[in-house]
Amino acid sequence: MPSPHVVAVARDDRHRFSKPVRDAITLVAGHGVEGDAHAGATVQHRFDARRDPTRPNLRQVHLIHAELLDDLTVDVAPGDLGENVTTAGVALLELARGTRLRLGDEAVVEVTGLRSPCRQIDRLSPGLMRELVGRDADGRVVRRTGVMAVVLAGGVVRPGDAIVVEAPEGAHEALEPV
Q: Is the dihedral of CA 132, 130, 79, 59 positive or negative?
């Protein structure tokens, strides 16, 4: 596996499914990606905001591993699935809740849970949802659409930046959808 690093970064100021790739993004502590429609201290996802707009935003930053994109049968580029940070060399789906990721020199995010995929995935490419969501041998739902995080320390993040993974202390809490 390659040394952990950022492959691409993306943001969009509107609530669209895919996000345009950028040269850099700025993470803001307690807020998310500066200029992104999903940034904010309280929930910004349209569906969740309709249910309770006062809930804390546990989805400030969306991360997907590039290895997943390489594994798909259709062409999906960084940003196409709405992620802010595309990583390489980090088994994101195996991380514990509370894992901290240092992105570049300053930024730190804390993993809050799994991304819950929505039907818009099939609008990107019909049948793609079946590749990203399935069941394991025990019948449990397996989501492969990345992880969500909150920003603990702000900073600029660029492609090529190193990623340092810091496991939380205590028992490993498996990721659940947020």
A: negative
**Strand 107-114 relative to strand 100-103, pairing:** antiparallel
d(CA 174, CA 172): 6
Report the predicted TM-score, pTM, of the whole model to 2 decimal places: 0.95
Low-confidence ranges of the chain (pLDDT < 70): 1, 49
Tokens of 20: 């345009």
Amino acid at 60: Q
For the chain, what percent of residues have pLDDT higher than 70? 99
pLDDT confidence of residue 2: 75
Phi first, then psi: give them for residue 163, nearest 5 degrees.
-120, 130
- Which residue stretches of the chain are H helix? 46-51, 66-71, 120-124, 128-132
Task: For the chain, give the number of residues.
Answer: 178
SS3 144: coil
The count of C-alpha atoms lying within 13 angstroms of the C-alpha of 44, restricted to the half-sphere facing its C-beta, is: 21
CA-to-CA dists, residue 178 to 43, 72, 147, angstroms: 11, 24, 9
User: What DSSP letter does each residue of 52-64 carry, written as one string?
Assistant: -TTSB-S-SEEEE
Instruction: State residue 119's pLDDT score.
Output: 83
Residue in the block written with tokens 């569906």: 47
Alpha-carbon torsion (40, 59, 8, 99), positive or negative: positive
